[in-house]
């Protein structure tokens, strides 16, 4: 995955968004991933380290190797991890399709928000599998933009979300990948594939999620593609503004916002 | 709600579908609803008793009154309850908008798959509220057809599901009501409103749900409106057949099907 194909870009705001996302979703997505002390873990596609900090924090005795294709992201990831006082992570620049590790190097592999950006996620899983020891586990977490539900419902907001799907597809990715994890991981040769959907449900009785998820994670992510959407003529400026306003509207007193992540675990 | 406005009709197959639905969804939807012995419970809109049997089975000491507007449904409900050997339910024909009970008659109120069929669900909740004792609870379970996700994705299947939404709206109902429970119940004057989304996630590692939910509950429900869809020209015969085939396709080895119910609890 070349750096310029990452749909969300590499802006400062995007870095903040990823951190916000990890912070508000930590419990929901990560609470049940704890690796034993001494186990060797590969985090494939660590990006700026938003998940790395959580992963390493939850498994302080594990020996974690985190790779990413982007040197710039890796620098940010290293900085985050250092600032958090974490010492059990080694970073390495690497392409997920050309992995520089001997077979059976790891007890566990972890990927979060990575497959959605790849043109051939099944091939990536196929390249990762030999790196696992027999009986080792893989854990994959992905979103699915098609799971987005909100009240009040709004056609412009739905269209804005659809633009995200369209742009990611144009870049060779798939932002509807969450629902596909079961066949993808099965076809890649793993066994005991188990999928656990995790819905982020937000209404005004959950103010931290209204801020942390509806506004700062999801709507900020959609807003981040605004310039590209207008440039490509996918929506008019007026439609776009109405769509974004409608997404913020769901964060009001009587609004509701839902999004589902899918967490998969499987065994070699 | 007049009998003829019930979108799914009153056929034998529909009766079977509702029973299938309740059987496969029992744990997911009902496991956390248990009323104390001696408490008075109103089930509003019991239909043919698919939920009544579960409700009464889970709360064998509660004194349950189940109402419905349809005499025919009530007869089936009574029969189901009798066959299950349940003795703590009294049935009564009544309109949810004109309830024949004095104020503060009940400790708890329970509604499952009822509000979606009403033109004014907030008014119904407003009529129910005075029947609760101070501090009594209301529990509401509803689906949301907009939450339907499947793999392989298919435009005709999505269009077929959308027909269900359209027809239910034409009859004055709202099959996207699940996401709206928080504001609806809040506006009706209840407090401590808590929403718990319950996704039914189905892949081929869960064969009972493939049969019981994807095929016998959801796809059967969509198939049930086929004649009306064709009659009203909402889809052509070919489109419809392709949509239904695509829904069945999601029940194959590599298919995935997801649907989310929303369960609300609140207090007077």
Structure description:
2 copies of one chain form a homodimer. By secondary structure, chain A is α/β, with parallel strands linked by helices. Chain A has a single domain (3-267), classed as 3-Layer(aba) Sandwich (Rossmann fold). Chain A has helices at 12-30, 50-58, 71-83, 121-128, 155-170, 181-187, 207-223, 226-231, 237-249; strands spanning 40-44, 63-68, 89-93, 106-112, 132-143, 149-151, 191-203, 256-267. In chain A, strands 1, 2, 3, 4, 5, 6, 7 and 8 form an 8-stranded mixed sheet that branches. In chain A, strand 2, helix 3 (71-83) and strand 3 (89-93) form a beta-alpha-beta unit. In chain A, helix 1 (12-30) packs parallel to helix 2 (50-58), helix 1 packs across helix 7 and helix 5 (155-170) packs across helix 9 (237-249). The radius of gyration of chain A is 18 Å and the shape is globular.
Task: Chart the SSEs and their pairings.
2 copies of one chain form a homodimer.
Chain A lengths: L11 H19 L9 E5 L5 H9 L4 E6 L2 H13 L5 E5 L12 E7 L8 H8 L3 E12 L5 E3 L3 H16 L10 H7 L3 E13 L3 H17 L2 H6 L5 H13 L6 E12 L1
Parallel strand pairs in A: 1-2, 1-4, 2-3, 4-5
Antiparallel strand pairs in A: 5-8, 6-8, 7-8
Organism (chains A, B): Methanoregula formicica (strain DSM 22288 / NBRC 105244 / SMSP)
GO biological process, one term (chains A, B): methylation
Protein name (chains A, B): Methylase involved in ubiquinone/menaquinone biosynthesis
């Amino acid at each position: 995955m070349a750096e310029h194909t990452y749909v969300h870009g590499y802006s400062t705001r995007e870095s903040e968004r990823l951190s916000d996302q990890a912070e508000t979703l930590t419990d929901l997505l990560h609470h049940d991933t704890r690796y034993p002390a001494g186990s060797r873990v590969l985090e494939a596609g660590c990006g700026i380290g938003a998940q790395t900090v959580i992963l390493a924090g939850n498994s302080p005795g594990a020996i974690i190797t985190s790779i990413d294709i982007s040197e710039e992201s890796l620098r940010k990831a290293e900085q985050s991890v250092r600032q958090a006082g974490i010492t059990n992570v080694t970073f390495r620049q690497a392409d997920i399709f050309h992995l520089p590790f001997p077979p059976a190097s790891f007890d566990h592999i972890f990927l979060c928000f990575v497959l959605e950006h790849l043109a051939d996620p099944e091939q990536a899983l196929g390249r990762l599998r030999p790196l696992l020891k027999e009986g080792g586990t893989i854990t994959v977490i992905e979103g699915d933009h098609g799971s987005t539900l909100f009240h009040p419902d709004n056609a412009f907001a739905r269209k804005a979300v659809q633009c995200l799907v369209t742009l990611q597809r144009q870049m060779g990715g798939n932002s509807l990948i969450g629902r596909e994890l079961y066949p993808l991981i099965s076809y890649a040769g793993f066994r005991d594939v188990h999928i656990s959907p995790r819905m982020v449900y937000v209404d005004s009785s959950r103010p931290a999620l209204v801020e942390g998820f509806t506004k700062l994670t999801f709507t900020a992510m959609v807003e981040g593609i605004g310039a590209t959407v207008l440039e490509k003529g996918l929506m008019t400026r007026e439609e776009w503004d109405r769509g974004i306003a409608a997404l913020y509207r769901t964060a009001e007193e009587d609004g509701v916002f839902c999004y589902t992540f899918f967490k998969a675990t499987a065994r070699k």
